[in-house]
Every structure is written in structure tokens, then in C-alpha cells.
Amino acid sequence: MRRLLVAAAIWLATSSPAAAWDPDAVPEPPEPEPPVVSAPEPTPEPPSTAPDPTGDDSGTPAPVAAAAPDGIYLVTDTYVKSVVTTNGDTTTYTTDTKHETPGSYARVIAVVTSGETSTFDGSSFNGRATLPNGTPVAGVYYENYVLTSSGYVAVSIVFFQDDSITRTTPRTPPSSAPEPPEVPYEPPTITGPSEPIGSWSPDDRDREPPPSIARLDVGIALAADGPILGATEVLRGREVRFWPRAFSGGDAVAILSWRLVSQAPDYASAMSGGAAPLVAEWRQMPRASWTLVFEVTPDTRPARTLIATINVAVRSPALIN
Amino acid sequence: MIANESGSAAATTMILLPLLLVVLTGALELGALRAVAYRATAAADLATLVAINDHDEVEQTRSGALRPSADAEQVARAYFAMNLSSTAAALADSPGAIAASADIAVFRIAPATDPATGWTYARPAVRIVARVPVRTPAFRALLLPAVTTVTVRAASSAR
Asked: Tell me, what's the ipTM?
């Protein structure tokens, strides 16, 4: 009995009152916390006024863009390839585009005229072609941007060529003038600050005829004899062969060399080559799209290096519904 | 008074016990049926994934598009049967017979609307609709059908 009393005494001495809720108690106002001295909050940047190309209104906060570069706009036409065509004496340098909205942005950074050099020469992923006399063609440099959570990020520069050159022939004098004596044939010349190329006279008939500037199309096919494709779908984890191909007047032209100048996929057999194709494979989770850009040098005279591109959509099997 | 209450409880138990057993048996059988249905659905899902994971290389070379291969239907049927074999003990028919009678469709051109399911496919797809007979012996004890047919649907595409 004594032990029991001692134990009870110890238990009572060491116990603490229960924090029971008293319904009649008047709640005390919370004790004010000491003020915290902090630096003033920075004024947030104004949100980007650019529309969300994905149209995602799922409630996720839209990325707040830093100051948008001047003249930036949503891309609605994308670069496909540079085209060189010849019609009679006129050779035209144009750019094929595709009407699509990939969600990226762009702005004009330089407009260059024929023969004018630019600080952006060599910085575009598709290069800048040259006229037969070696001077660069006219066109426009665009800088491409993607909108990230930290603002507009410049990703690449592309050159849209827009130029033409015409071989001139001696002008016929006015009919009122007396008929001039027949003059010997003069070779055609190319306008512009250049030396004529491809000049040829009847006296040269024993020599090899000059090379003709014919339309030369380059592109990428998925087989050695396959058609040129602007875009393709591939399965993730599968090897795909990309064959640079060239056609002149509808006839296939052998490829001397090619070089991959864009970002390489997860696996690439080589960054450059000749007759062998690029063997590529995407192993990571697919992203929106890829664009493979090749510099292709067909077996033509004079040797020309052209740009060939192909858009790649990487897919993987998935359940529906 | 106490004796009267004791007798009432015993009588209640005697009356309710069969009902409780019926409910318990039905719940257990329903749970087992649900598990088999899930496994059959997974078998169909995996079969469509395998079938869509191969593509027509000729068409890809020609147009760049990924289209199911010519034997996609046969591949889906074969893998559906193989995947069902792990649940064969619970099935009232052989996996091969179930797969053979399954409605398997290959949609090579997209977008397309599936007349059987009403689903819309934005890309080429392989779809399975199968009726899977499942043994339900406990239901038979409750005077219900001994075989319950479960309909499974699955579709996959390269996305």
C-alpha cells in the first residue's frame, strides 16, 4: 500500500496539466510578431504581350518574359530550303518557306544587298550563298527566339536569300540608225560588279563547253533512291538513314560531301560524309520537333554547296483514351 | 427480460447470416472479376502498343509519315493471345480463341473516327475491342451466370 501511495505521488508530481480546450475562454489576441526589416520588393517586369502559341490555358503561370527585343513577332512561315533557279539568262536566288506556326519568334537583324558584307555572315545556320562571281547574294538575316520562363532566348540565325542576276547581251541599236556592220559575237556577261563567268565564244568550240547554271535542288531522303522530304516522322529508339540528294533538271546528281550543321540527334553516325548517309537515332524523350540542316555539295561544276533541311518529329507508341 | 433479448439476437443472426454470406461472396467474386478485367485490359493495351511500334518503312520513305505496318492486325492479335495466357486459368475460353474473335482494326489514315468506340484518332492507330469470358463460380452458387463476359477496349498510336 505504501508503495502504491509513493508511486501515485511521483506520478502526480511529474504530470503536467492537459491543454484542454475551454469553450468559455475568451481568445487572446495573437501577440504581434516583431517587425522584420527587409529590402523593398523589386517591381516585377511587365508580362509579355506575346500570345501563347500553344493556347494553353490550363492554369499554369505563363512565363514572364524579359524585355522583348525590338521588332520581334510570332513566326508563321518557316525556312524550308534555299533555291537557285535559272530561267534563260536570269538566275534567281529565293527561299522556300512553309506556312506553319512552330511557336517561336523572330526579328529582322540585317537587310543586306547584293555584294554587301554583313557582320552576320557565317553566323546563320543555312549560310549565305554567293553569286557566280563570288559575291554574296542579297537577302535578310532573321534571328529566331524561343520564349522561356526567363524571357526570349535567341536560338539561331537564318538567312533568307532574295536576289537575281542576269547575263546581258549586246543591245541592238535603234532601228533608225544605219545597220551596223556585223560584229563578231561577244560572250555574254553578268551584270554587277563582277567578272563575267561562263563566257564562251565560237572560237572556243574546240574547248570544253562552259558549265551551265541549271536549277539544282537538294534535299534529304530516307532512302538512297527515295524522294526528297521536307519533314518526316521517326520512332524514338529506331535508326533512321538520312540521304542527302541532289537533282539537276530532274536528274539525280551524285553527292560529293555533306555536313550536318544543325544540332545532332542523340546518336549520329557522323557529322559529315560523302556517299554514305547519316544514320541517326533519337533516344531521349521526344521534344516538339527537330530540324536537321545539312550543307550538301553535289557533284556539279562549278562546285556549289547548298543547304538541305528536313524537319523531324520524334514519336513513341502510347495508349489512347 | 434479458433472456428475451438473447433469444432475439440469436434469431436475428440466424436470419441475417445467409444474407451476409451472399453479400460477402458476391463482393469477393466481383473483386476477382474486376482484377481479371484489369488484366485483360492490360493485355489488350500492350498488344496495341506492340502492333503500333512497328511501321511501314516503304510509306515512311515515300512520304515521311509513320503508318502501321501491313501485319499490324496479326501482330496485335498474336500478342493479345500471348498476354492473355497469364490469366488463362480465370478465363472461360482459351486465349487464342478470345484473341481470334477480337475485333481488331488498324487505322492507317488519320484523323479517323472509330465507329465501334466513337474514339477519334489524330494519328494512325491500332484498336482492339474484345469480349473476354471470365469464370465466376461464386456467382453460380448464387444462381447467377457462371461465366461473366467482360468487354475490353484498347487503342494505341505513335504520338
From this structure: 0.81
Domains belonging to chain A, first-starting first, are 71-170 (no CATH), 214-316 (2.60.40.10)
B125 touches chain A (CB under 8 A): yes
Tens-digit pLDDT string for chain A (321 aa): 566 556 555 654 555 544 444 445 444 444 444 433 333 333 334 333 333 333 333 333 333 344 677 777 777 778 888 888 887 777 888 888 877 777 788 887 887 877 778 888 888 888 888 877 777 888 888 888 877 777 777 888 888 888 877 765 544 444 444 444 444 433 333 333 333 333 344 444 444 444 455 678 899 999 999 999 999 999 999 999 999 999 987 888 999 999 998 888 899 999 999 889 999 999 887 666 788 999 999 988 777 888 999 999 999 999 987
The neighbouring-strand residues paired with B12 are none
Chain B partners within 8 Å of A232 (Cβ): 60, 64-65
Task: Nearest by CB to B159, from A229, A232, A318: name it.
Answer: A318
- Output phi, psi for B6, to 5 deg: -60, -40
> What are the residues facing A247 on neighbouring strands?
A217, A252
Query: Is B65 in Cβ contact with A321 (below 8 Å)?
Result: no
Other CB atoms within 10 Å distance of the CB of residue A161: 22
Full domain range(s) for residue B22: 2-157
